[in-house]
Design a protein that fits this description.
It contains 15 helices and 13 strands. It is of the alpha/beta class and 396 residues long. It folds into 2 domains: 239 residues, Alkaline Phosphatase, subunit A (3-Layer(aba) Sandwich); 141 residues, no CATH class. The strands form 2 sheets. Strands 9-8-10-1-11-12-2-13 form an 8-stranded mixed sheet, with helices on both faces. Strands 3, 4, 5, 6 and 7 form a 5-stranded antiparallel sheet that branches. Helix 10 links the parallel strand 8 and strand 9. Helix 5 packs across helix 10.
């Protein structure tokens, strides 16, 4: 029987101790009996998925844990999302992630416009294209608040220094607007978007319901087209499939030749159908050697500064997903966050994260729980996260 593998990415699940919760992290506060049972049978440790000097984004961290050195293969996040959305990026074009955000009294009120719905966002993106779009500028509708902006013939915009909106919760935006070469065009476009969004029916209705409106666009993570990348099969000798509720991970999967699974109910939040996502992923192992299961919900809760939502997401992953994976005979499993998303900072951190390897060939190294402290206590450390998949598939 061919060995089968699964990688469960609990996006942003790691974090820092919470002062008002007895100095425990959300992993420590969460009730995770299935994960803890596997920890007692498997190999627990820490891995650093973000190379020194690089931003602690999911693009870089997840590229690492898929076995690709970001210092070689990472050339920009927006272009990866463009792959997922079927948006071609030519050599004379620059593509940006373009969030719909809310700014209030000059401060970042909501990096996600109150988690605006797909349908509402699509209407707003259509309006932006109608009023601001041209042969030079085009907006592409994505998932929820996450969209793309493509600019043609202004390659210098890729050099603008742009700050992700989730990095500046409640901070004055004047300090974080695009800066440097190419920034003028972006700032002008942001300003023009405010007029379009201010008078749109969707925002009037959101305000009437007491919800956060989308007040402006926020471009960041600008990049040109992605370079040629070896497929996952070429890199690791395995066929692979992926399930995720976000374009970034689907883009990483597509650029590495993975099959992207279409599983109903897979979202980027706690309304995700965790059980069906795990069941669909396991079904993909009938035709593939390895499946990647990416769950965005803990990361979104961390960005929102909601510890209870983050704990709930971790517990749902344990109860509805790990329970199924642990009952799959012969499966070799890797469970880990890509990076920490501490509730206190509401943004990503670059420090190492805990990992668990379980299944045939792995034995206990005396861990008891899937937490940061327990993982550090084992003394097992992987310096370069892009090596972790090799340890998963080469272990005998």
């Amino acid at each position: 029987m061919t060995q089968k593998y699964a990688i469960l990415i609990m996006d942003g699940a790691a974090g820092w101790p919470l002062k008002d919760r007895a100095n425990k992290t959300t992993l420590e506060l969460a009730h995770t009996p299935y994960l803890d049972a596997l920890v007692k049978e498997g190999r627990l440790g820490m891995t650093n998925n973000v190379p020194s000097g690089m931003e602690p984004s999911s693009a870089i961290a997840c590229m690492s844990l898929l076995g690709y050195d970001p210092k070689i293969y990472y050339k920009g996040r927006a272009a990866i999302e463009a792959v997922s959305m079927g948006v071609d990026v030519a050599q004379d074009e620059v593509v940006f992630r373009c969030n719909l955000v809310a700014v209030k009294t000059g401060r970042m009120w909501s990096y996600c416009a109150g988690h605006i719905s797909d349908a509402e966002a699509e209407e707003l993106i259509d309006a932006l294209n109608t009023q601001l779009g041209s042969d030079q500028v085009h907006f592409y509708n994505g998932v929820g608040y996450r969209h793309l902006l493509k600019i043609k013939g202004l390659s210098e915009t890729a050099r603008a220094a742009c700050t992700p909106p989730h990095d500046i919760p409640s901070k004055p935006i004047a300090d974080f607007l695009p800066q440097g070469r190419g920034s003028t065009f972006l700032k002008e476009l942001m300003k023009r978007s405010e007029d379009v969004l201010r008078d749109h029916r969707v925002n009037y209705e959101r305000i009437a319901r007491g919800e956060v409106p989308a007040t402006t666009i926020w471009p960041f993570w600008g990049s040109g087209p992605i370079p040629p990348t070896p497929t996952f099969k070429e890199q690791h000798g395995l066929t692979a499939a992926m399930t995720s509720g976000v374009d970034l991970l689907r883009g990483l999967g597509l650029m590495t030749g993975m099959t992207i699974l279409d599983i109903p109910g897979v979202t980027d939040n706690n309304d995700n159908d965790f059980a069906l996502q795990a069941r669909g992923a396991l079904g993909a192992l009938k035709e593939h050697d390895l499946v990647v299961i990416h769950v965005e919900a803990p990361d979104e809760a961390g960005h929102s500064g909601k510890p209870d939502d983050k704990i709930a997401a971790i517990e749902k992953i344990d109860t509805l997903m790990v329970s199924q994976l642990s009952q799959t005979s012969g499966l070799r499993l890797l469970v880990l966050p890509d990076h920490p998303t501490p509730v206190a900072s509401q943004t990503h951190a670059s420090e190492p994260v805990p990992f668990l390897m379980w299944g045939p060939g792995f034995t206990s190294n005396k861990g008891r729980r899937f937490t940061e402290a327990e993982a550090k206590g084992t003394g097992v450390s992987i310096t370069n996260g892009y090596n972790i998949i090799g340890e998963l598939i080469q272990q005998s």
